[in-house]
Amino acid sequence: MPLLALGLNHRTAPVDVRERVAFDSNRLDTALRDLLDHGGAREAAILSTCNRTELYCGLKGEDGQQVVEWLGDYHLIRTADLQPYLYQHVDQRAVRHILRVASGLDSMVLGEPQILGQVKAAYHAANSAGALGSRLERLFQHTFAVAKQVRTDTRIGASPVSVAFAAVSLAKQIFADLPKRTALLIGAGDTVELVTRHLHENGIGRLVVANRTLERAHALVTPFDGFAIALEEIPAHLAEADIVISATASPGLMLEAAMMRQCLKQRRHRPMFMVDLAVPRDIDPAAADLEDVYLYTVDDLKSIIQDNLRSRQTAAAQAEEIIDNQVEHFMAWLRAQDSAASIRALRQQAEAVRDETVARAQRQLAQGRDPLEVLNAMANTLTNKLIHTPCAGLREAAAQGDVDMLNLIKSLYRLNGGNSCS
Question: Between the N and C ends of the chain, which has fewer C-beta atoms within 10 Å?
Answer without folding.
Answer: C
